[in-house]
Amino acid sequence: MDAVASVVVLDGPMGTELARRGVPTPAPEWSARALDVAPDAVEAIHRDYAARGATVHTANTFRAHRPALGARWEDLARRAVRIARRSVPADQRVAGSMAPLADCYRPDLSPGSASRGEHRELARVLADERVDLLLCETFPDPVEAVVAVEEAVRTGVETWVALTSGPDASLMTPAQMRDAGRACVAAGARAVLVNCTAASRTLPLVLRLADLGVPFGAYANAGRPEEAMGWGAEVRAGARSYGAFARLWLEAGATLVGGCCGTGPEHVAELAAMRDAQCTSFTSTRP
User: Which domain covers residue 106, as residue numbers?
Assistant: First the structure.
């Protein structure tokens, strides 16, 4: 199949969308707190992303691990997957999020290979809940990223990895991200993405993933408030600005696109419209 016809639209963020809707997300639980205090809001966000055209939906398990939640981590992880599953069409995919154990913008705080136990137990719980794929996301530390991928792959569930260079693209150079992506592919990742780096700074990183031999793409954040792509900017104009950057990723060969912090359902709708327009163009010109 031509790559144009296989573009997949992921959903957008949970944490910043909860905050935009007035649901508090304090540390260390962050978005996981809403599983207790606002499950209806979590469900509504999943439904909204599905209605706007996303077909891969990430369960709210980004902070559903032992270091953040203590003894309740497993109950909340399972609850998050079940909420996602009942919120989206049955023929669409639910991903289980596996995130760094420390701050995703502080690779210096990563436990590295010592994170294996926590990633293993979360991967097993998510697999037991029958997620369609495991998404190891927002990793700035290549060592911990590979460990998470290894434990996800060990479950037999399809595994993707998303690496971040941080909001200002200072945590990984494009060459370092390529090397980290290559190590994750060697560990069994079947797709590599860039996430939670400003959309305006993501293309150089995406370009270095193109030769890894697996599908690649990006779900970026909305950048600085003055870039007016999110964070309270006029919604339609912000979505169009974000879409202009996403179009560059697609032109570079990316087939996986979505949104991260500061984006929302309208940004996903913009991506879905681009996907649908490209697929229509491809279909109409096939011999």
Answer: 3-282
| 220 within some domain | yes
Domain count, the chain: 1
Question: For 181-198, what is each residue's pLDDT tens digit?
Answer: 999 999 999 999 999 999
Helix axes 39-51, 265-285, angle to 10 degrees: 30
- The answer to whether residue 287 sits within a structural domain is no
Tokens of 260: 């991260």
Q: Which amino acid is at 253?
A: G
2-49, pLDDT tens digit by residue?
434 489 999 999 999 999 999 999 989 999 999 999 999 999 999 999
| pLDDT tens by residue, 209-244 | 999 999 999 999 999 999 999 998 899 999 999 999
Q: Give burial (CB, 10 Å; 0-12/13-18/19+) of 148.
A: buried
Helix (H, G, I), strand (E, B) or coil at 123: helix
Q: What is the CATH number of the domain that holds 148?
A: 3.20.20.330
Which residues, in sequence order, are bridge partners of residue 97? 135
